[in-house]
Design brief:
Elements (H helix, E strand, L loop, with lengths): L7 E3 L6 H13 L12 H13 L3 E7 L2 E10 L8 E8 L8 H15 L4 E7 L3 H9 L3 E12 L2 E11 L1 H5 L5
The structure holds coenzyme A.
Length: 177
């Protein structure tokens, strides 16, 4: 059995919150892939999950036993005029990457979001994160623009690419402006 075939996708339950916080911390502390460079505490992680749920979004966890090895959050916008869209964020522990788990998580998030009747999903990704950009393009996200030198960390700049995808029925038949 490979590492990825052991992995299940589940909604957060209380006993997984600490492991979820630890998983985010590992990816954040790589300082390469996320805007976040430090993890959140267990309490902050619980509050994050509850706030996403109360706004009508979803947090999906990838678990290997009781170890959270990845996540994908679908975070709704709540301001009036923007409630048709949600923002995607995801990450996977280094040893679980490159085995199809990212694709499983993003496919799950798209299916969930379209079923929940969101119309547009957005994300931002460091432009040099070729694996993530490739994955997002492959499921239909389209680049909308680049913020140049948008982050300066450890003396190094990174550009940020904005990507978005529309619900398939809207892409075929765009509503009138
Ligand atoms: C980006 C990330 C979520 C992708 O998930 P993953 O499980 O590693 O990717 P998958 O195994 O599902 O592969 C997705 C695609 O990327 C390709 N890919 C995966 N790893 C790769 C690598 N190291 N080099 C080149 N291509 C790679 C796969 O071949 C696949 O494409 P294909 O189906 O056309 O062959 C994951 O690598 C990760 O968590 N990275 C660090 C955190 C991060 O970047 N988060 C996103 C911030 S916007």
């Amino acid at each position: 059995m490979t590492e990825s075939t052991r992995v299940a996708l589940v909604l957060p339950i209380p006993k997984l919150v600490g492991s979820f916080a630890a998983c985010v911390a590992v990816v954040a502390e790589e300082r390469r892939y996320l805007g976040l460079v430090h993890g959140r505490s267990e309490g902050e992680t619980r509050e994050f999950i509850e706030s996403v749920w109360s706004d009508g979004g979803q947090v999906m966890l990838a678990i290997d036993g009781d170890l959270v090895v990845g996540w994908c959050s679908t975070i709704p916008q709540t301001s009036e005029g923007f409630t048709h869209l949600a923002h995607i964020g995801m990450g996977i522990l280094p040893e679980y990457r490159g085995q199809g788990l990212g694709r499983r998580l993003i496919d799950n998030a798209l299916g969930w979001a379209w079923n929940a009747e969101y119309e547009r999903l957005e994300l931002s990704v460091f432009t040099d994160n070729e694996v993530a950009v490739h994955l997002y393009r492959s499921v239909g996200f389209v680049e909308e623009g680049v913020r140049r030198r948008a982050r300066k960390l450890d003396g190094q700049y990174k550009d940020i690419t904005f990507m978005a995808i529309f619900r398939p029925d809207l892409e075929q038949n765009p509503p009138s402006a």
